[in-house]
């Protein structure tokens, strides 16, 4: 009988991962690692895939919202490339889902919150706080000028 027993993590730094056909023990990233990642840029997105090729609908929704606001310059991390990153960012934020969006090192939310903030116009204010003028403001001005000149 082949019985697999979970190893006890050493000081919380080792995590055993069981995948079909293999067993791996990986060192988890520490809190400081995630603090550095989320503070590395004004906007940081942990997602499945990357902005050019999102690999899930929720990640794609966040990317599209960023594009609508003219936010093309942000850091992204593909959690599908590293299980330690995928689980670690969830533990760090205490938020169970991916994608996760950070503004100036602070957790803004996941897809549902970003979509809701976008729909309510609140995301424009969040962009202002980090020194980014939302492209939607420019489109609104263009629309007003078109209406007035007609």
Please provide a written account of the structure.
The structure is a single chain. The protein has 150 residues and is α+β, with helices and mostly antiparallel strands. 43% of the residues lie in helices and 22% in strands. The protein has 6 helices and 8 strands; from the N terminus they run E-E-H-E-E-E-H-E-H-E-E-H-H-H. The protein has a 4-stranded mixed beta sheet with strand order 6-3-7-8. A two-stranded antiparallel ribbon has the order 1-2. It has a two-stranded antiparallel ribbon with strand order 4-5. A hairpin with a 2-residue loop joins strand 1 and strand 2. The termini are far apart.
Oligomer: single chain
Task: Report the β-strand fraction as a percent range.
Answer: 15-25%
Distance between the termini: 81 Å
Shape: globular
The secondary structure category is: alpha+beta
Which stretches of 5+ consecutive residues score pLDDT under 50? 1-25
- Number of alpha- plus pi-helical segments: 6
Proportion of residues in helical segments: 40-55%
Mean pLDDT over all positions: 84
Query: How many β strands by DSSP?
Result: 8
Q: In what order do the strands lie side by side in the largest sheet?
A: 6-3-7-8
Helix and strand element order: EEHEEEHEHEEHHH
Largest sheet: 4 strands, mixed
Radius of gyration: 19 Å
Topology readout:
Elements: E1 14-19, E2 22-27, H1 31-38, E3 43-47, E4 49-50, E5 53-54, H2 57-68, E6 75-78, H3 83-93, E7 100-103, E8 106-109, H4 111-120, H5 122-129, H6 135-149
Parallel strand pairs: 3-6
Antiparallel strand pairs: 1-2, 3-7, 4-5, 7-8
């Amino acid at each position: 009988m082949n019985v697999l027993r979970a190893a006890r993590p050493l000081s919380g730094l080792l995590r055993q991962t069981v995948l079909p056909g293999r067993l791996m023990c990986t060192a988890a990233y520490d809190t400081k690692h995630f603090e550095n990642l989320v503070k590395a840029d004004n906007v940081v997105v942990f997602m499945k895939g990357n902005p050019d090729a999102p690999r899930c609908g929720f990640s794609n929704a966040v990317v599209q919202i960023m594009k609508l606001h003219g936010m093309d310059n942000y850091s992204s991390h593909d959690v599908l490339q590293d299980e330690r990153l995928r689980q670690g960012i969830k533990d760090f934020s205490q938020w169970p889902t991916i994608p996760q969006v950070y503004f100036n090192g602070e957790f803004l939310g996941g897809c549902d919150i970003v979509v809701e903030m976008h729909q309510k116009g609140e995301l424009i204010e969040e962009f202002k706080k980090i020194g980014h003028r939302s492209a939607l403001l420019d489109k609104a001005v263009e629309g007003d000028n078109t209406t007035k000149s007609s």
